[in-house]
Design a protein that fits this description.
mainly beta; 2 domains; 9-stranded mixed beta sheet; 6-stranded parallel beta sheet; 12% helix; globular
Length: 204
Amino acid sequence: MDIAATIKSNPGLKTAVHRMLIPRDSARPRLWVRLLLNRFFHTRQQGAKIGSRTRMDVVPFNKFDLGRNSCIEDFSTVNNGVGNVIIGDNCLVGMSNVLIGPVTLGNNIILAQNVVMSGLNHDYRNVNIPIRYQDVSTAPITIHDDSWIGANAVITSGVTIGRHCVIAAGSVVTKDIPDYSIAAGNPAKVVKRYDEVLQDWIKV
């Protein structure tokens, strides 16, 4: 049995290790984790950049990978506490984005300003327990290559956005979007698709 499996199988040990890495009632790892430990577990490819004012709430027990020539701009928050955050090559994560794993971005993706995507959901079913103390569930968000997510868009857990898609500014995406589509609205719906025969974008 490896070390990770041993820790996960022992609730007391798991809690103790978690407290060593992250203070109680906080999402931000301790300073020594951010400055020292994470560099041995996470990957930043050549040319990758993270703004100096970006909040990196990343821990060593889940993946954080930033691809070649990709950039996370200032005032963004990245959190891999409940799932991996993997960003491909040549991606731009704009200012003030929030990425909470599990999230996977392909290559050549643009996220405009104030985009929020969270693979995490809080349970709320037990009305006798405050929501913040109930369990959480996760479902991965995946965005395929060459897509553009407009400013102030929200991508909810479990959503897959296809290749070369455009998500209009302010949209709330709650369902999968197929390849070569433009989606808009709350909840977002496909409004155009690329027609290979006509070689043009056609209204739906």
